Amino acid sequence: DIVMTQSPDSLAVSLGERATINCKSSQSVLYSSNNKNYLAWYQQKPGQPPKLLIYWASTRESGVPDRFSGSGSGTDFTLTISSLQAEDVAVYYCQQYYSTPVFTFGPGTKVDIK
Amino acid sequence: QVTLRESGPALVKPTQTLTLTCTFSGFSLSTSGMCVSWIRQPPGKALEWLARIDWDDDKYYSTSLKTRLTISKDTSKNQVVLTMTNMDPVDTATYYCARIRAAAVTDYWGQGTLVTVSS
């Protein structure tokens, strides 16, 4: 199975400032035939299920604010919140869906307000 | 509007078999590319993928749990059922079902159901 790691484990950012979360896969999740990275990002608030934010590493799901953006390719990816809002406090997970059907998740990164 | 809802017992005893049902609406599991997965999350811990069933009835299981899991679907009832045998306290978790579109992107999740394993 592909192993996903995330850094940092947690971070605290001031309101309005940028938050950056990193995700690394143990092998490439770039599918050469279509040049797509099989990588998604989720946001999970306490007591709620995960919510899809980004797929194909950089495509924002419908309705997701544009302060959320994804980047990266191959094995290294980043989720950026450009201007942190109070409602963005949550745990963020990356997930690979390259290695079907076992779509492994990263361990999560907790984002708090400084 | 796509919705999924998990149902099942909140408490099971060690060694018992857990049966969970995912009832969904807003899509058909007979549509090409549609899949439903089960994912669990122990309290305060990360997400763990368990099993998946596809529109064509292909079934897949977590390598570490495959001897204990069975997934099935009833397309006419819009339901997916997961059974897990020989439950142990370490299986205490919130169990989610989720839709996968285009056999790739997990886009909609149920609210989850907390299952506690205790005697």
What does the model show?
The complex is a heterodimer of chains A (114) and B (119). With 114 residues, chain A is mostly beta strands. Helices cover 0% and strands 49% of the residues of chain A. In chain A, a hairpin with a 2-residue loop joins strand 9 (68-73) and strand 10 (76-81). Chain A starts with a strand and ends with a strand. Chain B is an all-beta fold. Chain B has no helices and eleven strands. Chain B has strands at residues 3-7, 11-12, 18-25, 35-41, 48-54, 59-61, 69-74, 79-84, 93-101, 105-109, 113-117. In chain B, strands 2, 4, 5, 6, 9, 10 and 11 form a seven-stranded mixed sheet that branches. Chain B is globular, with a radius of gyration of 13 Å. The model of chain B has no long low-confidence stretch (mean pLDDT 96). The chains are: A mainly beta (114), B mainly beta (119). At the A-B interface, strand 7 of A face strand 5, strand 9 and strand 10 of B.
Shape of chain A: globular
Overall shape of chain B: globular
Quaternary state of this entry equals heterodimer
Topology as H/E string of chain A?
EEEEEEEEEEEE
> What topology, given as strand order, has the largest sheet of chain A?
2-12-11-6-7-8
The main β sheet of chain A shows up as:
6 strands, mixed
Biggest pleated sheet of chain B: 7 strands, mixed
Straight-line distance between termini of chain B: 39 Å
Order of helices and strands of chain B: EEEEEEEEEEE
Query: Would you report the number of β strands of chain A?
Result: 12
**Number of E-state strands of chain B:** 11
Number of helices of chain A: 0
Note the gap between the termini of chain A: 36 Å
Average pLDDT for all residues of chain A: 96
Give the largest chain-chain interface (CB within 8 Å). Answer: A-B, 23 and 23 residues
Percent helix among the residues of chain B? under 10%
* Residues in helix, % of chain A: under 10%
Taking all Cα atoms into account, the compactness measure Rg of chain B is 13 Å
Number of helices of chain B: 0
